[in-house]
Specification:
Blueprint: H1 6-13, E1 17-20, E2 23-26, H2 29-32, H3 35-46, H4 50-63, E3 69-72, H5 75-82, E4 91-95, H6 100-114, E5 120-124, H7 125-130, H8 135-148, E6 153-163, H9 166-171, H10 173-190, E7 194-198, H11 210-231, E8 239-243, H12 254-271, E9 280-283, H13 306-320, E10 325-327, H14 340-343, E11 348-351, H15 353-361, H16 365-378, H17 389-396, H18 405-409, H19 413-433, H20 440-446, H21 456-471
Parallel strand pairs: 3-6, 4-5, 4-11, 5-6, 6-7, 7-8, 8-9, 9-10, 10-11
Antiparallel strand pairs: 1-2
Length: about 475
C-alpha cells in the first residue's frame, strides 16, 4: 500500500504530479485521486523512514490547492456571525480519532451530500498522544481524505483543547507554557489555522471574586493568543477560542464570561494594541467529555442547560462581536436535542466519543477482546475499586487507538466500507440537525483562500520529532480519562 522508496514514489508521480524548485505542479488532477492518494496517505502515516513520511505529507498539502482545497481559518465566518450576518446554524467540530482516514472520508462524503462547507476537523492535545497522531500527520491525513473524496473549498483544521495542566503550571509556570507554545508552533506549521486555548483548568473558584478566580485563565489565554498572532502566515488571521469553565465542572455564567473577556482584552492590548482577540468562548453547560458511564457500560443521561448557551451567545455576539458560545462533550447527547443548538445561537459544537463508539461496536469480536486485554494490562493502574469491568473499558478504550492504529487502518476493505457508511449516515444526520446543510456557498464567499506554502524540511523535521518521541521514555498522560 505505501511507497517503499523515493524512486518508486517518483516513478508513480510521473505524468500526474511534477515537483521542481520546491514547488508541486499537478499535471493530471483526476490521476491524483484513487490509488495514488491512498498510497501517499499510508506512506505519510506508516513509513518507517522519517524522510518518506515527511515527503508524502508535503506532497499532499502542496497538491491540495491545485485541486481547490485550501487549509483555512474560520475567522472571517465567525467575524461575520459576530456582525449578525449569518445565523441559524451551529458548526460541528469533529474530533477524528480512530481509523482517521476512513472517518475523514466519511465526513467529506456527508458534506458533499448536503453541500456543507461549515464544519471543522479537530484533534485535542490529549488525543494527539493516545491516538498517535501528530499535527503534521493529522493535517496530511485530513487533507488526503478531502482530495480522495473530491472536496473543494476552505478546509478548517483545529487544535482542540490546547490545555494547560494546572498542577504543572503551579509547579513551574514558564516550563508548562513553554511546552504549550511549542505545540502551538508545531500545529500552525502543520496547517492548523484554528486553535482552541484551554486555560480554564487554571480557574480557582475558591478565590474571593470572579476576577481573581479567572485571573490565571485570562492572563494565560492572552499570552498564548499574542504568541499565536506572532506565528500567523501572511494573510491568515488564526481563529482562537477561549474557555471559561472546565467541561465537567460548574456551569458557566454571563458574569464569568464578561469578566473573563474584559480582562482578557485588557491583557492582550498590553501585548499589542492591534492584536485580534478570540472568536468564540467555550462554556460549561452540564456535560462531560465522553459522557458518564454507568455500571453496565451505558452512558448516563445528561441534564444540559441550554439557557447558558443562549445567554452567553447573545452577550458574546451583541456586546463583543464574537461568534457565540461553544458546546463541548456533546456527541453522546440524545439525538433529539441536536436541533436545539442552532436555536440558542450556539456557535460551535464539539463531537468525538460517539464516532469512536461506533467503530468499536463494529469491530470483530476477536480484535475487540484483544484490545480489551491490552487495556486491562496497560491501564490497570487507572482502574478504581468501585468500577465495573464495563465502566473501566468504556473509560480507557480510547487509549488503544494509537497502539492498534495500523490494525484498525488495515481492517478488511468490506468492514472498513461498512464502518465508513455508518459514520457517513451519522454525519449526514448531524449536519442536518445542526442546520449546516447548504452552507458551502456561504463559506466560499466569506472565507477567501490564502496562498500558504509548506516547507518539506518542516515536514521531515516533524516526522523526525515523532520518531524521537516514540523511542523515548513513556510518561503518564496528565489528562481527564474522558476528555475529548
Amino acid at each position: 500500500m505505501l511507497f517503499q522508496t523515493m524512486s518508486q514514489l517518483g516513478d508513480t508521480l510521473r505524468g500526474i504530479i511534477e515537483i521542481s524548485d520546491g514547488q508541486v505542479h499537478v499535471i493530471d488532477a483526476t490521476g491524483v485521486r484513487g490509488a495514488l492518494i491512498d498510497r501517499l496517505v499510508w506512506t505519510a502515516v506508516f513509513h518507517e523512514k522519517d524522510e518518506m513520511r515527511g515527503t508524502a505529507r508535503w506532497i499532499i498539502k502542496m497538491t491540495a490547492p491545485h485541486l481547490g482545497i485550501h487549509l483555512s481559518s474560520i475567522q472571517p465566518l465567525y467575524e461575520a456571525r459576530g456582525r449578525g450576518e449569518n445565523e441559524g446554524f451551529t458548526i460541528p467540530a469533529i474530533n477524528v480519532r480512530g481509523m482517521a482516514y476512513d472517518t475523514a472520508r466519511a465526513i467529506f462524503r456527508a458534506a458533499s451530500r448536503g453541500e456543507v462547507g461549515a464544519f471543522i476537523l479537530e484533534i485535542a492535545k490529549s488525543e494527539m498522544n493516545y491516538t498517535h497522531q501528530s499535527p503534521a500527520e493529522y493535517a496530511a491525513v485530513m487533507t488526503g481524505a478531502a482530495i480522495q473524496e473530491g472536496f473543494k473549498g476552505p478546509l478548517f483544521i483545529q487544535g482542540d483543547h490546547i490545555q494547560v495542566n494546572a498542577k504543572k503550571f503551579t509547579e513551574d509556570r514558564e516550563n508548562e507554557l513553554s511546552g504549550i507554545r511549542q505545540l502551538i508552533k508545531e500545529a500552525i506549521t502543520a496547517g492548523f489555522y484554528n486553535i482552541d486555548i484551554d486555560s480554564s483548568t487554571l480557574v480557582v473558584l475558591e478565590r474571593p471574586n470572579v476576577i481573581e478566580q479567572q485571573r490565571d485563565n485570562f492572563e494565560v489565554a492572552a499570552d498564548l493568543t499574542a504568541y499565536i498572532r506572532s506565528l500567523e502566515p501572511l494573510g491568515v488571521t488564526i481563529s482562537v477560542g477561549g474557555e471559561i469553565g472546565e467541561v465537567g465542572g460548574k456551569n458557566s455564567t454571563v458574569e464569568e464570561f464578561e469578566v473573563y473577556l474584559d480582562q482578557f482584552l485588557e491583557s492582550l492590548q498590553q501585548q499589542g494594541s492591534k492584536l485580534t482577540g478570540i472568536s468564540k468562548i467555550s462554556v460549561q453547560t452540564g456535560t462531560s467529555h465522553g459522557g458518564v458511564p454507568l455500571a453496565d457500560g451505558t452512558v448516563a443521561e445528561v441534564k444540559l442547560d441550554f439557557s447558558v448557551l443562549e445567554k452567553i451567545s447573545k452577550v458574546a455576539q451583541e456586546k463583543y462581536g464574537l461568534s457565540g458560545a461553544v458546546q463541548h462533550g456533546a456527541s453522546t447527547l440524545p439525538a433529539e436535542v441536536f436541533d436545539r443548538f442552532p436555536l440558542t445561537g450556539t456557535s460551535e459544537i464539539h463531537l468525538a466519543t460517539e464516532f469512536q463508539n461506533m467503530i468499536y461496536d463494529r469491530l470483530p469480536a476477536s480484535l475487540k477482546e484483544e484490545i480489551y486485554a491490552y487495556l486491562r494490562e496497560a491501564c490497570k493502574g487507572e482502574r478504581t475499586s468501585d468500577q465495573t469491568e464495563e465502566q473501566f473499558i468504556y473509560k480507557t478504550r480510547k487509549k488503544a487507538i494509537g497502539p492498534f492504529k495500523r490494525r484498525l487502518w488495515g481492517l478488511p476493505s468490506e468492514l472498513r466500507e461498512k464502518i465508513g457508511r455508518a459514520l457517513e449516515e451519522r454525519f449526514v444526520f448531524l449536519f442536518n440537525k445542526l442546520n449546516v446543510v447548504m452552507t458551502r456557498d456561504l463559506v466560499a464567499k466569506t472565507v477567501q483562500p490564502v496562498a500558504v506554502s509548506f516547507m518539506i524540511r518542516d515536514e521531515i523535521a516533524a516526522a523526525e520529532a515523532e520518531s524521537r518521541k516514540a523511542s523515548g521514555p513513556k510518561v503518564q498522560e496528565d489528562i481527564n480519562p474522558l476528555a475529548d
